[in-house]
Every structure is written in C-alpha cells, then in structure tokens.
C-alpha cells in the first residue's frame, strides 16, 4: 500500500515535523542567553544584598572545589591532575553564573558529562553514585537557581530536558553503574527551576506594576493640570467676552454719542468694533475646543469676592465653625483676581469639609493697594472625627496654583505645627483694570446669584 494511503501515516508525519520544530526551538533557546548581563540582585538598594550572589557563589566554589578533587582522587581513584581539572571545571563556572548563568551551565554540563565518562574507567566507581557525584549534584542545583532567576521559561524548559537527556543517555551507557542519581537530579533541578522561575516572574510583574503606577500617576497629574487650565480658560472667557462686548458697544455707539465726529474717527471706531467682534468669534471657537463634549454652556456670571460670605455660611451649615474677616474696602480688584480669590477660598473651605470636618477655620481677605491677600487657616478638630475623604485627587491644590500663576502671584500651602493647615495666596492688583472690574461687578444681580452653579457652595 502506498505511504500516502497507509492509515495514520499523515499523523505520524505531522508529529515528526512538530517534534523536529520543537527540537530546533529548544536548541535555539539553549544557544540564546538572556540579553541582560547585570549581576543577580544587582538592582537591590542595599549594597550587601547586591553582593550576596557573589558571596554565595564564592562560598560554593570554595567548599566544592577541594572536596570534589579529594573525593575523585581518594574514593573514585582518579588521577590527581584529571581530578583537579574536573573539579575546577565543575565548580569554578559557578562564579560566572552570577552574571551569565546559561554560559556557565554549558561549561558545567560539559564538565559533568566528561567527569561521568572518566569515572566509567576508574577503579573506585563501583558502589558509588554515578553518573553524577554528590558534589556535582549540589553545584548543579545552585546553577539551576541562578538560571531560574535570569532566563525565560522556554530556556529553563530546554535546560531541564537537556539535563534529563544527558542523565538518561549516560545511564544507558553504564547501566550497571547507575544508582538512580540521574533521576534525582532531574527531579530536583525541575523543582529548583520552577521555584526560582516563579520568583523571577513575580519580581518582573511587581516591577512592571510599579512602572505602570508611576506612569499612571504622572498621566493623572498631567490630566488634572490640563483640566484645571481648561476650566480656568472657560471662566476667563466669560470675563474677557464681557470686556470685548463693552468695547464693541462703545465703538459702535461712539458716532451717535459724540457730535461732529470726523469721518476718520468714525472709520477708526468701526475698525475697533470689527476687530472686537472678530476677537469674540475666535474666543468662542477656542472655548468650543476647550469644553468637553458633554459640558453645557454656563450662562451665570462668574462669582467674585462679594460672594465669599455665602461660602463661609455654607461651610458653617456643613458643620465647620468658620469665621470671615473681609476688608470693607478692597479697592480696585481686577476681575481675574476677583474670580481667582473666590475660587481659592472655595477650594480651601471644601478641603476643610472633606479632610478636617469640625476644625475651626478662619478666612481673611485683605488688600494693601498693590496685592490682594487671601488666607485660609484651619486648626485641628476639637474631637477626633473620621474625614469624609482620606485621599485626594490633587485637583484643589493644582487649581489654586494655576489660578495664582495666572495672575502672577504666589501661593503658600502646608501643615501647621498644631495639626492644622494653611493656605495663603498673594495676588497682585493691576491698576489698569479698575474701570473694567467695576463694570464687571455691577453686572452681577440677585437673580444671577441664585442661578449660580451648585458647586460654588460645595
């Protein structure tokens, strides 16, 4: 019957092809050591822990080399020169295993096989372990531990199978001498490789998690910063849009309000009004980009320092004893500074409610004519109280810093010796925005205050 028609011939052919392919892969793994040549435990912070692999390897070599030479000479009746060479080849590569364990394994396996061949013709082999001596087993297991801590799974599997194959091949050659030590080494080496390989993979996973957490934390901080900047930009749009609208109206109405206005002046006012409208259009386009897809338009005017009293009252209702010291006359406060000061007080009080409920809090807003000073200080809570939140997202302080940076001021935050917390912001006042700020303040009405977003009181 032709080979193609023989039952099971195709299955056997595929099995042989798979076996050859697997053999080639295992051979390639044995010939491809890990790209890393860093010492084992080289990344440890403790210096003594980094030196530990060298110390262990040196101790094994110092103990096994003379013992191996002595046992081979006295018990196995091997010549002194040959015994010394075998002992050195079987133990000295353990020092190399600290940085290049796979290369060390090739040398040790070759030396162990050569030693087994030499012992075949020795006079003292009968009644003693063969093909592996006890010292060779101990050194080999130490080498397996180094391999497990460095090489990938497929390489470890190839090493384990090669160890078993070498032992079984020697057993077939000298079956009368074998006492099963090759099976013992095969099993023990597999156990050591599995344990150390699992430890290495666990360490790799932990390191990747640490790296991922670091990246995630950096991305989260960057996202928080961008969100705060977008929010500030949306708020500033309301401020600047109001000013640009005033400019447009004044420029358009100037020819009707001013009698006998020259034609050149009329054209100049018309140009000013046109430029202001174009600027408003561009700002609206920018706002559309900054606003998230699910965000709704904010129709209420942005709050200012004249609403700090409402913030303090809402904080008192939340169970925090708070008091306000607000200067009767703050002078000319630019609208950007006005809004930034309000937001800083709002976030500081919200942090007190979340992280230090019941802590007495003092809010102070003063002006010396050149700078506006906002100070929020809370002391320790009179009785231990579980905070509403134990960890924060970092949005609050990021928002404060961005607002202070926007106005060119400075921010000082930090814990106090008595257990409280302090937020101090200094915002410079620019005299050029006095009239604009006045117009912005008069535009606030009682009805707009009632429609302000609920986040203002939270």
What do these coordinates show?
There is one protein chain. By secondary structure, the chain is of the alpha+beta class. The protein folds into three domains: 12-179, no CATH class; 222-290; 305-381 and 394-445, Heat Shock Protein 90 (2-Layer Sandwich). 61% of the residues lie in helices and 7% in strands. It has 13 helices and five strands. α9 (308-317) packs parallel to α10. The longest helix is centred in the middle third of the chain and has 77 residues, at 181-257. Mean pLDDT is 81; it is low at 1-5, 390-394 and 431-458. It comes from Streptomyces pristinaespiralis (strain ATCC 25486 / DSM 40338 / CBS 914.69 / JCM 4507 / KCC S-0507 / NBRC 13074 / NRRL 2958 / 5647).
Please count the beta strands (DSSP E, at least 2 residues each).
5
Distance between the ends: 89 Å
- Biggest sheet strand order reads 1-2-3-5-4
Number of domains: 3
Rg is 40 Å
Biggest sheet, open or closed, and with what strands and sense? 5 strands, mixed
What series of H and E elements makes up the topology?
Answer: HHHHHHHHHEHEEHEEHH
What is the global morphology?
elongated
The number of distinct helices, counting runs of at least 4 residues, comes to 13
User: What is the overall pLDDT average?
Assistant: 81
What share of residues are in beta strands? Answer: 5-15%
SSE-based structural type: alpha+beta
Percent helix, as a range, is 55-70%
Weakly predicted, low-confidence segments: 1-5, 390-394, 431-458
